[in-house]
Amino acid sequence: MADSTVIEVYSIGTELVMGRIQDTNAHWIAAQIAQLGGALRRMTIVPDEIDDVIAAVGGGIDRGTDIIVMTGGLGPTPDDMTVEAVSRILGAQTIVHEPTLEDFMSRRNITDPAEVTDAMIKMATVPEGADVFQNHAGWAPCIRVTKDDSTLFILPGPPKEMEALFSGYVAEFISASYQTKNAALRVIVNMSESEVSPLLEAAMEKYPTTYLKAYVAMRHSMNQGLPVDIVATGDDAADAHHILNATVEHFSRLVTAKGKQMELYDE
Predict the structure, then answer these.
(1) Same-domain check for residues 91 and 205
(2) How far, in Å, CA of 223 to CA of 96, rounded?
(3) What is the C-alpha separation between 145 and 163, in angstroms, rounded?
(4) pLDDT tens per residue, range 211-267
(5) Three-class SS string for 160-212?
(6) In this structure, are 170 and 196 located in the same domain?
(7) End-to-end alpha carbon distance in the chain
(8) Angle between helix 50-62 and helix 82-90 axes, rounded to 10 deg
(9) Are 26 and 71 in contact (CB under 8 A)?
(10) Residue 49: which of 86, 92, 94, 85 has the closest Cα?
(11) Domain count, the chain
(12) 60, 63, 109, 138: least buried by Cβ within 10 Å?
């Protein structure tokens, strides 16, 4: 994709429209997109009404939006309609994603299929043909589908789950969409979030076109320490890599000065 790639964010939830809770998800996502160099065109809050979701998201597709990020409406209750709405937009059937259901059963130590609940089945239901990414910070997975020229990412509403899935799957996709300007690297530090946060800020202050993020939600599942992504934005690929290398060296010195260690993430 070119640098003209456009992104829209949709938060699904009647409780958001009614003002019962604040839409912190959209605020957080907008900040991530900006740091990644993305162009966010609009943020929209939509109630849990299937026709409203179809109209809102369908409008984004009609506008030729390159990346659409949706949060909410993936839970087990009757008002969670996002999967059904997206399936109708795609003209696709909904199916139970067996690997997701198997993951649910494994995590709950269920061996008898008869013990699978309707709630588990609903959260494992996706549009046919979707790419599905497991949610190790919660339950409902991240779902990716395409319609015309638009790629849609559907994320659960709970903030910690949404942030972990966005960081694990969506951020990489956005970064790749601007690959002529961005360069990224993941490192591991043996520090707590409170210890590393001032160092992240110091590195970003020294190199203003970089973005550093620690992923606390991924720490325990990785068993390697605290992962930190370093994303640099430059005028072109060479410039971005030059800034990235300088930032990594600077961040490493800051970590070492605190008596801690930094190493490259080994996938």
Answers:
(1) no
(2) 31
(3) 19
(4) 899 988 776 655 678 999 998 888 777 888 999 999 999 999 999 999 999 999 876
(5) HHHHHHHHHHHHHHHHHHCCCCEEEEEEEECCCHHHHHHHHHHHHHHCCCEEE
(6) no
(7) 26
(8) 50
(9) yes
(10) 85
(11) 2
(12) 109
Secondary structure, 3-state, 65-122: CCEEEEECCCCCCCCCCHHHHHHHHHCCCEEECHHHHHHHHHHCCCCCHHHCCHHHHH
Among 142, 177, 212, identify where a domain stops. 177
How far is the C-alpha of 262 from the C-alpha of 225, rounded, in Å?
10
| Residues 84 and 187 placed together within one structural domain of the fold | no
Q: Tell me: do 188 and 233 sit in the same domain.
A: yes
For tokens 């588990």, the residue is 120
Q: What is the pLDDT of residues 236-248, one digit of tens each?
A: 778 889 999 999 9
Q: What was the pLDDT predicted at 222?
A: 54
Longest dimension (CA), the chain: 57
Amino acid of residue 264: L
pTM check: above 0.85? no
Structure tokens at 173: 């996709």
Structure tokens at 158: 């709970």
241 touches 232 (CB < 8 A): yes
The confidence score (pLDDT) of residue 177 equals: 77
What's the order of all strands across the beta sheet hosting 150-155? 39-46, 6-12, 67-71, 150-155, 142-147, 131-133
Name the 3-class secondary structure at 159. helix
Six-digit token pair at 204? 């970003």
How long is the chain?
267
